[in-house]
C-alpha cells in the first residue's frame, strides 16, 4: 500500500513508499475502524516536518508517514463499534493518549507529559496513505451533506478548541462578552476562526499582510461578514485607533514575532490565543516593561492551544455545518489547491511551499 | 491635617502638605466610614510614582496623596454601616468603580475601561495621611488578633487574587493540581505568595537573585517550608533540571525581562501569573519561535493580575490568619522597616529606595 513519508531529521526527505496495509484487528477490544482515505490536507506543520524542524518517527521505524488532516470513508468496523458503519464519512483526531491524568479522562489534547503522540507529526504514523485504522474513540463522523468540506474537519477542530479555550479561561471574569475580535493570519486557521467568531456575532477584523485588492483570502473573510485588513495598507496600531483594542485575538500567522506583537494591542480583560506552530530559532525584541505593565493593570490573558480531541472535532464539524447555513458556499472557497494521487506527493509539497495564493492544499487519495 | 503627596509627572516631588480633613458625610447614603491611619505601607509602586513613571492627581488637584496599602482604626461610621463600628481595625481596597459592566457587578478590579481609579495611584488620593474616609463597601475588617500584620492586608490581597486567577483560568483543564511552583522574587509579594502556596501544599521554590547565606528573605521563605534559590548560585535552567518544570509560576520580581523569561520554564498545562508593575521603557529579546511553539503544544497560560477587590482582601486576610497558625511568628518578620510619623516621609522614601535588605517599608502614622 502506498504512503507519503519523510525521514524525520533529514530535510526535504518526502517520498513515496510501500507500507503494510492496516489491520482492523490490530485495534484491541473489537473497537477498530478501517478507513479508506478520500482527502488528506497538508499545512505548515507538514512543511516544517519536511524541513526537519520537528517530527519523530514511531519507535522501530526510520520514517514517518505524513498527514494529520484526515477525511475518509469507513470500510469495516470491529464488533464493538456502535456508532459507525461502512460507508460513513469520518475524520480522525491527531493526538493519542499518554499516561497522565489528562490522558486518562479523555483529554489527551492537554496531556501534561512532555512527550506527546500525534499521528503524522510525532511518534505515530499519519494519514497520507491509502487506508488507516484506529480506535472508534478517535473517529468522528462527518455528515454526508458536509463531505465536500470533510478535509477541513481537523483545521476546524483546531479553531473550535482555540476559541473555546479563551471562553473557558475567561469564565474567571464572571462576565465576558467580547465584541471586537482580531484574527491574525488569513490561512485556513485564520479564515475558519473568522467564520466561527462571526457565527458568535462578533465584529471581526481578519488581519494579514497581503493587500486587499484581488485577494481571495480577503474575499472569503468579507463573505463571512468580517473586515479584511492588510497591514501593508493599515498598520496594526492604526487599526487599533479605528476599532478600539480587541477583546479577543486569535493568532494564526505562523510568525512568532507577530504572536508577541499581538500582546501589545489586546484590550483590558482581553484574551489572546496562540495557535501557530513555529519550529524555527527566531527571536523577537519586545517592549517588555510596557507589555508587562499593561497586562498586569489590565488583567489580560494568553493561552496556547494545540490540536483538539474528539469533542473539539465535533464542535468544529458543527461550526462547519452552521457556516454552510449562515454563509452558503463560502467555506468551500478555502479548498483552493487539490492534487490527485499519492504518487503526486512532489507536486503536493511544491504547491504547499511555493503557492502563496493557496489556502487549503490537499491530496485527493481516492474519489469520493 | 498632614499628608504625604507628590506632584504627578514631576520626579522626586514627594513632600508633606496640609490637606482638608475628610468628612464622614462626604460619602452618600450614610455609608461612610472614617478611619484614623495606623500604619501605611509603601512599595515599588510608590517609588515609581515618585519617579514620575505613572500616577495621576485627582481632577481639580495638582497633587496626589500617596499610599495604597492601608491599615487603620475606625473612628466613626455613617448610620447605614452595619458591619463596622468605632474601634474596629480595617484595611481599604484600592480601585474604585468606573462605569463598565465589571464595575457594576462589584468587580472594579477588572474594569474593562482604559481609565482606572486607584487610591494613592491614579486619579484618587491615597491613605498616607492622618485620616481617611470611604464607603463601607471598600472597607475590610482585620481581626484584632491580626492587627500586627494589618499593614500587609493589601499585599496579601494581591497575592490571593493572583493565585486565585490562575486556578480559575485553569478550570478550563477540568483537572488542575499543580505540585511544583516557582515564586520569582522575594519581596513582600514573593514571600506572601510563597506562604499561600505552601498553605495549599505545593512544593515551592522562591527564586531571587541574592545569595542565600545570611539572607533574611531566604530565611523567611524557608520558614514557610519553601526552598529558597539564588539565581546567582543556581541558574534558572539548572533549577528546572533539578525540580522539573513548575506547573505554576508567580512572577513578582519587578523585572519585565524575568517576566518573559518565566515563560521559558513553565510546564505543559502550566499557569504563569504576572504581578509586577514595571513603569519603565525596558525591552527584552525573547526566543519567540521556541516560546510560541512550546506554549501552543503545551496549552500554557499567562494571566496578568492587578490589585484586588474586597473579596480578595478577605481571602488575603484569611491567608494571613491561616499562616499565623501554620507558621507562627514568621510573617511578622516581613515587617523590617518602620518609619514613625508623616513628617519623616523623606526617611520613608529613602529606606524604600536605598535599603536593599528591607522587605516591608511602612510608616507608622499613629501608635496602635
Automatic annotation (TrEMBL), chains A, B:
It comes from the Bacteria. CDD domains: glucose_DH. Residues 32-143 form the Alcohol dehydrogenase-like N-terminal domain. InterPro entries: ADH-like_N (IPR013154), ADH_Zn_CS (IPR002328), Glu_dehyd_C (IPR031640), GroES-like_sf (IPR011032), NAD(P)-bd_dom_sf (IPR036291). It holds the Pfam family Glu_dehyd_C. Residues 148-349 form the Glucose dehydrogenase C-terminal domain. Its cofactor is Zn(2+). One of its GO terms (molecular function) is zinc ion binding. Keywords: Metal-binding, Oxidoreductase, Zinc. This is Alcohol dehydrogenase zinc-binding domain protein.
